[in-house]
Write a structure and sequence with these properties.
This protein has 309 residues and is an alpha/beta fold. The chain is 24% helix and 27% strand. The chain is built from eight helices and 15 strands. It has helices spanning 41-48, 124-137, 154-166, 179-185, 198-201, 217-223, 261-272, 289-297, and strands at residues 2-6, 15-19, 29-38, 64-72, 84-88, 100-104, 108-110, 145-149, 169-174, 189-192, 206-211, 227-235, 251-254, 282-285, 305-308. Strands 3, 4, 5, 6, 7, 14 and 15 form a seven-stranded mixed sheet that branches.
Length: 309
């Protein structure tokens, strides 16, 4: 089968399209005929060697995947050949940038039926990150106020949608190019971060500050003053600590997204109910994945890109 893999860490040039043996599912695993995998920034970081996830080389990237089960290993219940599934695969194992991938059955759920199967690969880690940041780490509840810094990306727009489903009042920052999309996601107030000081624009304290942007650490610390006493600061910028304010009881957390089958199934149901939109901005063939990594290394990838085998 065809796959894209890297045998050493380095620049995008270490990625190679190769022919490899079709994997065979072990006990507790199924094999998926891949419909699509999704490109994530972490794929770029693992390939470059600056994200400390212990992959075994050679490694196939693409831990978000959608496809159809075509073989089932021993001791697998609830999945059968022909089932359409999505999953957030273990990041240290081979991913879905291939024609076939084996996956732990416990990592997979039934795919949404309301969107194309390939597009569903864009859902798992994006939606799980947003939910974990808002609910698990942030404790967001109905009636609370949320400030999302950097809401114009795919995680940001997903977080806005989920926060509105929870019943929160959402204030979001966005550039002029993404403001309409953030507003369409449900934000109650959209602030142009390129022209406006947030300390002036946010009139009342917020219960949760969610940062999704690579902002200056001093600026991040300054924004904590917008959080009410006893509130929370959550960030997805793993390379930078999230500031807190212990004197006022403001806690902080940095999100390292974790797989959660039950939660992913719930997010799929939200998609099929029309309560959560899955964003796909580009679809590329597998052979173009090295070029996409080069774009990402140069900071030129925006939105969610899925890779078709």
């Amino acid at each position: 089968m065809r796959a894209v893999q890297f045998s050493e860490v380095g620049g995008p040039e270490v990625l190679r399209a190769v022919d490899v043996e079709q994997p065979v599912p072990a006990a507790g695993q199924v094999r998926i005929h891949v419909a699509a995998s999704a490109f994530n920034a972490a794929d770029n970081g693992m390939r470059a060697g600056f994200l400390p996830i212990p992959v075994v080389l050679p490694h196939v990237p693409g831990y978000d995947v959608s496809g159809t089960v075509d073989a089932v290993g021993a001791r697998v219940d609830g999945l059968a050949v022909g089932d359409q599934v999505i999953g957030f695969l273990p990041m240290e194992r081979d991913g879905g940038a291939a024609e076939y991938v084996v996956a732990p059955a416990e990592a997979l759920v039934a795919a949404p039926t309301s969107i194309p199967l390939a597009d569903a690969a864009a859902l798992p880690s994006v939606a799980l990150t947003a939910w974990q940041a808002l609910v698990d780490d942030g404790g967001l509840a109905a009636g609370q106020r949320l400030l999302v810094v950097g809401a114009g990306g795919v995680v940001g727009k997903c977080a806005v949608q989920l926060a509105k489903q929870i019943g929160a009042h959402v204030i979001a920052t966005a550039s002029p190019s993404s403001a309409d999309a953030v507003r369409a996601a449900g934000a109650d107030q959209v602030i142009d971060h390129t022209t406006t000081d947030l300390l002036d624009a946010v009139g009342e304290p917020v219960d949760l500050l969610l940062n999704l942007a690579p902002i200056d650490p001093e600026e991040f610390t300054r924004l904590v003053t917008l959080v009410r006493d006893g509130g929370a600061v959550v960030s997805t910028t793993a390379w930078m600590a999230a500031p807190d304010d212990a004197a006022r009881g403001v806690r902080s957390a940095v999100v390292f997204v974790l797989p959660n089958r039950d939660r992913l199934a719930r997010l799929v149901s939200m998609v099929d109910a029309g309560a959560l939109h899955v964003e796909v901005t580009r679809r590329i063939p597998l052979a173009e994945l090295p070029a996409l990594h080069a774009e990402a290394s140069a900071g030129r990838v925006a939105g969610k890109v899925i890779v078709l085998p």
